[in-house]
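Ticket opened by: R.M.
Priority: normal
Category: complex prediction / small molecule

The reporter submitted a protein together with KG4 and asked that the result be attached to this ticket for the collaborator who will pick it up next week. Submitted input follows.
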Amino acid sequence: MLVLGIETSCDETAAAIVRRDVDGSGTIVANVVLSQIEDHTAYGGVVPEIAARAHVEALDAVIERALAAAGVAIADLDAVAATAGPGLIGGVLVGLMTAKAIAAAAGKPLIAVNHLEGHALTARLTDGLEFPYLLLLVSGGHTQILAVEALGRYRRLGTTIDDALGEAFDKTAKLLGLPYPGGPAVERAARGGNPARFDLPRALLGRESLDFSFSGLKTAVRHAAQAIAPVTEADIADLCASFQAAVCDVVARKCGRAIDRFRAETGIIAPTLVVAGGVAANKALRAGLDAATAAHRARLIVPPGSLCTDNGAMIAWAGAERLACGLVDDLDAPARPRWPLDPTAAPRLGSGQHGAKA
Ligand code: KG4
Ligand code: ZN
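Result attached by the on-call engineer:
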């Protein structure tokens, strides 16, 4: 089956065509991603209204480009899938309404996809991974450890109680005067720095919990910078390296803990941990997770960078998996700015700038 996937929940306007064969394997036939980063750089973050308008202007052409690159007509499609949440509501509405219009006009089934499910299922597209497995999702808006048990069955093991990890990178970059997006800038600056110079806090490590907290870490970076002001380039490198070391330490240890718990619960001797989201691009984090999975006798899968960040292929693939199980949606499917993958997990009410990230 051929599925068109549309992604507009944040600052990427994306469309892709994915084929799923009867044996359950998948192929990306076309994958077009238009980043809006330049539209938001001046503001140091994604401005929802600007993002929504940019999606309106770009989406039709992005879909046309994906169809052309695949050599596929709308009539050839088996379904149209779009992100229906969670995300910035204006952008989600643009993508979902476009998908509904195509589905209605062409008489194709609509699949309203949870964006997080797209991230969660990507490793099944890239690596043919079988259920169940562990997922670490670390992006600008989400930080979660999930047990991916089956299609539509996700159990949240841990989440952030305040800032998402990518958000912590972005805010740290901003307070040090580094450009947006902050993650790559912090990683670059950290390369020449001394990770042991500043002893930054590792939150929530003492407990059994798999939850995260990053807002105190960001504040600690601010205090450390203020204490040595004016900061030099070498100071910034040391601050970034120390911040990154703290982050990698916490994430690696929590993932090790999650692997042990998952093994105890499932009896799987060598579980797989999948990493997704923009922060998965961070090399220091990957190295930390490599070490943690080796120490805890688990396999690590990091999909290629272009499929870790937001894209249409993951939405098309989630749509194809759902379609194969007969899971399609009505044309009145709502856009959902908040849509937890695990509806049984209580929301974590933290103090992040954008509210709880659960
Ligand atoms: O998944 P993504 O592209 O978009 C969503 O948030 O959904 O993730 C973007 C986030 C940003 O916060 C960005 O700073 C972070 O991922 N990021 C990184 C790196 N590249 C991107 N964080 C740390 N190191 C990186 N190399
Ligand atoms: Zn995402």
